[in-house]
Design brief:
With about 140 residues, this protein is mainly alpha-helical. The chain has helices spanning about 15-40, 45-85, 90, 100-105, 115-125, 130-135.
Length: about 140
């Protein structure tokens, strides 16, 4: 199996080719075409096609968002468990103060730097981008949907 390119802040964003370059653009173009056709030839069938194309585009985006939300929930749980095992008990009580966005960003931090970075995230109210930029030893996540 070929070696994967090491993941960093610069290259961690992921595109799903079937979604980003096929389904979404084609459905967006279909909505535009349906709207133009409806404006030129007003009728029940044209209106129904416009509504159905908007529904299809909305459904595809909602399905994508649902899978991302489920994955974020799993990541939050994993990171809370990881923080409980890595933080001293005195600081473990602050884990619930981390936001969803902070927990999702902390997943990229190595075990060695996670405790200090989590403390910084809490005290400095770091954004997810700030957390990711502060990571020295990147822990890759190749399974993101």
């Amino acid at each position: 199996m070929a070696e994967r390119m090491p993941q960093t802040f610069a290259n961690h964003a992921k595109y799903d080719p079937l979604f980003h370059f096929f389904a979404a653009p084609i459905l967006a173009l279909t909505v535009i075409a349906a709207l133009v056709h409806f404006l030129w030839h007003r009728g029940v069938h044209e209106g129904a096609f416009l509504v159905l194309s908007v529904v299809a585009l909305t459904a595809v985006f909602k399905m994508r968002l649902y899978s991302l939300k489920v994955q974020d929930r799993v990541i939050r749980l994993e990171e809370r468990l990881r923080l409980m095992s890595l933080l001293p008990q005195s600081r473990g009580s602050r884990i619930p103060e981390l936001t969803e966005s902070q927990l999702v960003a902390l997943r990229f931090a190595s075990d060695a730097e996670l405790p200090a970075l989590a403390e910084r995230a809490l005290t400095e109210k770091l954004s997810n981008a700030d957390i990711k930029k502060a990571i020295q030893n990147w822990r890759p996540d190749y399974w993101r949907v």
